[in-house]
Amino acid sequence: MPINCRHCFWIAIKYGNKMETVLTETLLEIKNVTKTFAGIKALNDVSLKIARGEIHALVGENGAGKSTLMNILSGIYPYGTYTGDILYESERCTFHSVKDSERKGIAIIHQELALVPHLSIAENIFLGNEQGKSFKIDWEKTFAKADALLRTVGLHESSRTLIKDIGIGKQQLVEIAKALAKNITFLILDEPTASLNETDSQKLLHLLLEFKKKNITSIIISHKLNEVSFVADKITVIRDGSVIKTFDKKMDDCSEDLIINAMVGRNLSERFPPRTPCIGDIRFEVKDWTVEHPLYAEREVCKNININLRKGEVVGISGLMGAGRTEFAMSVFGHSYGANIRGRIFINGKEVRLKTVKDAIKHGVAYVTEDRKGNGLILHTSICKNTTLANIRKVSRRNVIQIDKEHEAARECVEQLKTKCTGIEQSVVNLSGGNQQKVLLGKWIFAEPEVLILDEPTRGIDVGAKYEIYCIINRLAAEGKSILMISSELPEILGMCDRIYVMNDGKIVGEIPREEASQEAIMACIVQTKKENTNHA
Length: 537
Hints:
With about 525 residues, the protein is of the alpha/beta class. About 30% of the residues lie in helices and about 30% in strands. A hairpin with a 2-residue loop joins strand 2 (about 20-35) and strand 3 (about 40-50). The longest helix is centred in the C-terminal third of the chain and has 18 residues, at about 520-535. The termini are far apart.
């Protein structure tokens, strides 16, 4: 039965009385790779095999070493900065740059997309890989090849369209087309669906399955275990820089509970921490709130919204991407978004005007943005500086920051939120996603708000870190804070919220108490309003 080949072997799989023979070829082998940063092992003797045409998922908590391993494989961390070997098609690889790995047919697509907004799709696809000769670009060839690549990835857009004019889901497909333009046969995707809605996520996953039919190999890094279980042939769990286990979907039990247990090293009997609500009077109320798009006059993105939050209550806003949830939250938070904003806000029964962020903070309203890296934190500044940003007055005297007070405040915040760091002077950019999110939460908790708006508070972080964030939210509610939580993950909304508003097309289309809430009830509200809109049209 064995074949005389070092990298090929036959596996017999029994289905009832049938025997099926499958040929598996090892395309990539990672052998005993160790990578150290400042004396700390980010990867510890990692070994892994990937078969040709396989979709292989890497999962683990933030900071486990997944991205570090992929950065080695793609040449971002060059040969010589780590120990161990990378074998690709039986050859030992010594990549010194991304170009070296691309010549082998390996490309990495990062969570933060590397596209130029004011260039066309075609220009982005062939950026650094221009079509033509003698220093002259052949534009006809460029657009024709780009259009063909867009058809391959299922993107129905003209390649002459500017990147800034398409959504994030389509931009993700452009990145994949850009990789295919370099004759890539091995794709590495780092959190490819983190910023996508459910529809776009499914399209991307089905695209990977189509690539598999064409013998393109993929590694996908993701925290969304339902997506991983759907698309991957094998799932490797990495914890604290070491490979813990590889699950083979054909032979192993790949239940989410087992994967989570391997990821965090303990059982999470409950995905959401228990809480006994103690809900008081109405603290925060928004009435007849209407917001227009800042660029397109008379296009209403929020339409006559009415909501309220009670003391000690966690209220959710659910809806599909583009429903207007973030636009609503930002417009309420000191008119941070929108034009011609109309409506009234009441705090403890008294009408207030929150026309600036300063007004909002002064009245005890805080907004934790969904974009922690772009709008929430100053990444290359310390934890300490980020923590006190929203309430510098508290650590100042006569407009001069008192360093001792600032340090004391930051240390207290790190201890309370259990932020994993080397110290309060560590740069935020060097923290894992979950710990960056804790710094962002700490920044707004330090502002001493009574109303806390959380926009996608667990986006891009692992299940263990999510649980810790949920515990923080519960603690704030227990202290009497009023929490407004926006999330695209229905299980999260259902598991955390006392009451749920459903939003669609800029309007509140349903209000569901916790005891009546379900995924079906939420989707029914959305579907019903879509039908009504279609009938009116």
